[in-house]
Amino acid sequence: MTRNAQPALVRAFFASFAEGILSAEAERMGGEVEMTPRSVKQVMLNHYEEISHHFFDIMFYPLALLHYDTAEELIDILRSPEVAPTLKAREDLFLHVCRTEEAHEDMVTEYRRNFSALLGGRVMTLDDFFDGFPEGYLEEGGADYTREIRVLTQVVVRSFFAGRKVAAAEGMGGSNQICLYRLLLDTMQCLLHTAPVDMSDETDLTEAFLTVCRGEENMMVMMQTMQEELSSTTTAAT
Predict the structure, then answer these.
(1) pLDDT at 158 (0 to 100)
(2) Which residues 6+ apart lie within 8 Å of 196 measured at CB?
(3) pLDDT above 90: percentage of residues in the chain
(4) Contact, 151 vs 67, CB < 8 A?
(5) Which of 46, 177, 199, 219 could staple 203 via S-S, CB 3.0–4.6 A?
(6) Beta-carbon neighbour count of residue 212 at 10 Å?
(7) Is the Cβ–Cβ distance between 213 and 188 less than 8 Å?
């Protein structure tokens, strides 16, 4: 697992969950998604307790996939006589999903950073994300990041639609895929780069994704995973 992966996933959850809620609210109002401090604070006010619940539901398996080679390895640990009696609440599972105490502390730190940003009325910006790490800590992505790209894409799609469900959105709004493209362009930078990607306004969507994903192979993994998740979401909604 790369050092970027876990913090990128945490930020992807918060950004996508918040936009899912805001996109649903915008559809009801007949307008565009607008991440104003007031609207984000309202999300926090209306859905404060639900954020931690959905974070656990959505992030448990993605984090496990990052830290373990197989699900059986984690299951054996959770069922072991040493660990099983210590699992008093579902939050206790995160101690083992993150595998090491250091990784768990890092996850908690990123959770608090993102939550604090929402309390302040905004989703954590890319600049704020990258500025939270010492120079040289994060890593540039490559062509062997298939697992990380798949997991991050799953988190983006699932968190976005969880936010829409929380906001009681009706049906599959036509702007959903546009929102997902924007979220993936944004969050993939956290996974595969060490600083925000500089692109001009004239950059077309394909070129932007190729740049952010660092090549066609990574982009195709992302696109395929997104379509799989959308198909699954559509099937579950019918």
Answers:
(1) 96
(2) 126, 127, 130, 189
(3) 62
(4) no
(5) 199
(6) 22
(7) yes
Which amino acid is it at 178?
Answer: I
Q: Tokens 């730190």 — which residue?
A: 109
What predicted TM-score, i.e. pTM, was given to this entire model? 0.92
Task: Tell me which of 103 and 235 has the higher pLDDT.
Answer: 103
Burial environment of residue 179 by CB neighbours within 10 A (0 to 12, 13 to 18, 19 or more)? buried
- Res 67: pLDDT: 93
Cα separation, 14 vs 20, whole angstroms: 10
Q: Can you tell me the distance from the alpha carbon of 59 to that of 65, in angstroms, rounded to the nearest whole number?
A: 10
- Would you state the pLDDT for residue 33? 60
- Return the ∠ at Cα 92 (arms to 1 and 72), rounded to 5°: 50
Does the pLDDT at position 225 exceed 80? yes
Query: Region 60-77: what's the mean pLDDT?
Result: 90
- Residue given tokens 């609210």 in the structure block: 25
Taking the C-alpha atoms of residue 43 and residue 51, their distance in angstroms, rounded to an integer, is 10
What pLDDT is attached to residue 210? 96
Rounded to the nearest integer, the mean pLDDT of the chain is: 89
What angle separates helix 146-166 from helix 216-237, to the nearest 10 degrees?
30
DSSP secondary structure string for all residues of the chain: --TTHHHHHHHHHHHHHHHHHHHHHHHHHTS-----HHHHHHHHHHHHHHHHHHHHHHHHHHHHHHH-S-HHHHHHHHHSTTTGGG--SGGGHHHHHT-SHHHHHHHHHHHHHHHHHHHTTSPPPHHHHHHTS-TT-S----TT-HHHHHHHHHHHHHHHHHHHHHTT--S--TTHHHHHHHHHHHHHHHHH-SS-----TT--HHHHHHHHHTSHHHHHHHHHHHHHHHHHHHHHH-
